[in-house]
Design a protein that fits this description.
This protein is mainly alpha-helical. The chain is built from three helices and no strands. It has two domains: 47 residues; 35 residues. The longest helix is centred in the N-terminal third of the chain and has 34 residues.
Length: 98
């Protein structure tokens, strides 16, 4: 079992993404089964072909996630700059920890 904070954090993150991946796989499998089972109940006039959508879904995904990625990168760069110019926070003393 990891005792170092960095290793503990990395292990926790790996476990999180492992669980997230498993959940996503289950959701995708369930969605596929649901879509297949209900397809015959949706009238043809209510189905919208991908070609008729106002924006290509792949383009919409790239725009949305591209923005989110840029936002995270910008925030990370900002925090790194703050840490580079700000004073170090002193470690708490034993008396303050009690």
């Amino acid at each position: 079992m990891p005792t170092d904070l960095v290793e503990l954090t990395k292990t926790s993150q790996e476990q999180f993404f492992g669980a997230l991946g498993a959940l996503q796989d289950t959701m995708l499998e369930t969605y596929t089964k649901f879509a297949t089972a209900t397809e015959k109940f949706v009238p043809a006039e209510l189905r919208v072909p991908v070609a008729d959508l106002p924006v290509d879904p792949k383009t919409a995904i790239e725009l949305g996630f591209g923005f989110a990625t840029k936002l995270i990168d910008t925030q990370k760069a900002f925090v790194e700059k703050v840490l580079a110019v700000g004073p170090a926070v002193p470690a708490p003393t034993k008396a303050a920890a009690k």
